[in-house]
Amino acid sequence: MTSALTQRMKPSHLKLICAIRDHGKLQLAADAVGMSQPAASRMLSEIETDAGGPLFERLPRGMAPTPIGAAFVRHARVILAEVDTLTTEIAQLQGGTAGAVRVGAVTGPAVGALVPALMAVRAEMPDIQPTIEVAPSVTLIRGLEEGRFDFVLARVGSDSDLRAFQAYPGRTETVCLVASADHPLAGRRVALSETLPYEFVIQEPGSPIRTALETAFLENRLPTPAQVTNSSSLLIALNIVSDSRAVSPQTREVGQLLARIAPGLAIVETDENIVVSNYLVLHVRHRALSPVAQRLLNEVLRRL
């Protein structure tokens, strides 16, 4: 970046560039940030002049970021997130216990660690404004990098570069099967081989629970389930399980919660231990957490 760019840059510039990336058209981006299309065009031209090159390709169907533009958008999102965090922290310092915190988690840790921690913090700080998003780990880590989360509970691959993150180890999770309460296997402890005649509703290939389940079958010299419905949606899995003889592998914490709150569901235990790869609690190393986010993070870690 040139010195002119850093000296002249304002939040409005960053918001416009992010809006162009999100909407793909200058007019839509201008509307999103509350300015006229000519003003947005002039602002973009000034930014590109200061940056030393075009940030977007002008294509027949819209605008796509150039490599410079993609880098600009990535940093702009982080800067805007930091400004939001600053604004929130000022309000918290002035008010004492209010403020927003944004956390992402995969399903099991959300149920077993994040929600209990949040309930404990809210008892002390009733005016906090938490946002919890449950999503696949790839989505969560990307959101953390872009500044959409204060911290996440997610799994990372063995080849992941964690240098940008402060990482704390989470729990080891085990898997049980969720079935309808009138399923032939409901409430029993069974061998994996006894589950093979039934349909499985499970996340897509490569997901942690899917990998753990298939590994357990293969390690016991069994074929993997032949009847499979792929879905990452817990609601879809429960809908199918409730109306059929299908089973759905879930982390034990999720399975126990479902069996407790839904009388029509039951847990099926397996003789073979099915272990999911550990998750991590991650936040960006050099991005300061607000007091509320730090308090919630500490409570999550205390419970692990």
From TrEMBL:
Domain HTH lysR-type, residue spans: 9-66
Source organism per UniProt: Marinovum algicola
Record's GO cellular component terms: cytosol
Family under the similarity heading: Belongs to the LysR transcriptional regulatory family.
Keywords: DNA-binding, Transcription, Transcription regulation
Gene Ontology terms for molecular function: DNA binding; DNA-binding transcription factor activity
SUPFAM superfamilies attached to this UniProt entry: Periplasmic binding protein-like II (SSF53850), Winged helix' DNA-binding domain (SSF46785)
Name of the protein described by the UniProt record: DNA-binding transcriptional regulator, LysR family
Gene3D superfamilies according to UniProt: 3.40.190.290, Winged helix-like DNA-binding domain superfamily/Winged helix DNA-binding domain
Listed PROSITE patterns: HTH_LYSR
InterPro entries noted in UniProt: HTH-type_LysR_regulators (IPR050950), LysR_HTH_N (IPR000847), LysR_subst-bd (IPR005119), WH-like_DNA-bd_sf (IPR036388), WH_DNA-bd_sf (IPR036390)
